[in-house]
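User: What would this chain look like folded?
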Amino acid sequence: MNVCIVCSSHLEKEETKHIRIKLTNYTKGFTKNFRAVAINLVKSCEDHLWQGHISNNFFKLGSEDEVELIVDCMNTMTVKKNGVYLVYEQDEARLKAKRGLDSDDEAGSSCDTSSKKIEN
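Assistant: Here's the prediction, encoded as structure tokens.
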């Protein structure tokens, strides 16, 4: 799944090092937390855009699962908007081949605005 987050910093707080993503799957009845690494968003008056790809091996989403995604910047940023693009297996294989990623690798990717996107 590709995740995009638009957030603004609190100038009086320290820099953001991590973003936590909490996904609740109401269909399967579980909640999982994912902590993205190497964020390092600096204090600024401008909005920040974070984009990342998280393998479905972590969240194990099904095609008709009802889910809720919560983004937590640990009180150093305000999340203004987030979006999720669900990537099908063949898309994920093509993405990994294009970027030369291992199957366990979770790296940044582009944010797609197609019809499969869910916005909060």
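Residues 89-99 form the longest helix (11 residues). If you want, I can go into more detail on any region.
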